[in-house]
Amino acid sequence: MNEDRLIKQFLELVQIDSESGNERKVADYLQAELEKMGFMVEEDNAGEKIGGNAGNVIARKKGNKEAKSCFFCAHMDTVKPGNGVKPKLENGIITSDGTTVLGGDDKGGIAVILEGVRSFLEENKEYGDIQMAFTIGEEEGLFGAKALDYSSLWQIDGAFFFDSGDDSSHIVVRAPEHYDFAATFHGLAAHAGLEPEKGINAIAAAADAISKMKLGRIDEETTANIGEITGGKATNIVPDTATIKGESRSLNKDKVASQIADMKKACEEAAEKFGAKVDLDIAKSHDAINVSLDSATALMAKEACALLGLEAQFITTGGGSDANIMNGQGIDAVNIGVGMSKVHTTEEFIAVSDLVMAANLVKKLLEVAGK
Ligand SMILES: [Zn+2]
Hints:
By secondary structure, this protein is α+β, with helices and mostly antiparallel strands. 33% of the residues lie in helices and 27% in strands.
């Protein structure tokens, strides 16, 4: 592992603008880097599908022996403000100049994968097939990962995403299934002073529905929220529309389905009670991560950590990532820490020691797979 090369590459990457939808320059940069490393590189048409200027970058290399295959993934896009990043390295910590995010989320993931794979290949050891994907549009809703054609990938034994906080001994094996929920109530407008009895108050119907919902923490595995409410035009008009938006997540798919069904029922009953109509827009955002500790992916991660003298910490998160999408395709995929901290803020930072640890873990994962 070449620490100087890793840091130089990370600093280069964060200085390439790539807010979501504008990943072109990072995609081109990666194409060149991966070809230098001897990989076949393609870019898919995810950008066309979701309206971005680049697709997912997919790189593969056939193994030099029959051994376990590895898949590594990180996302190319950053949140705003992510353009014109000027990184500063002081006392082993890398930050932006305070006017932008750093973009360690997820350039940190990209840099450690590149350095880990590159330094592994330099040692001329044996390895199985190696595949990598660098995705677009993660921050706006895992769009690149959702548009990726998983059937075009070679068979995968261990799938490792590098897009998480904490150091790389922290390995996410559980994350919730997530539904988005929206309900629009249609009532009837009327003058609020002259003839309110002719109106149907859509805001009152929406409020009634919300008051019947269980929200917040439902149980240890399940949460629900109504996070937005809009409607009405003026204080002297009985409002004819009101929209509420929310979500529910659970580590247990039956529980999230039942919570969403309860929220739907509350809306339908409130609409009926008020003589209003309700349009529901309910969609699964992504599947859960639920990787067994006996799976090849988890066992490889555990062994690779042990080779670095670390005890793997298998953890649960309430968030979502590209790894959720791959799990939804029936492939066990874990999300490993890169040390990114205070992400999505201009105070974002990452420690050099965490980048080094994660790059070493990538290298050890390849060693474990190639045995
Ligand atoms: Zn991320």
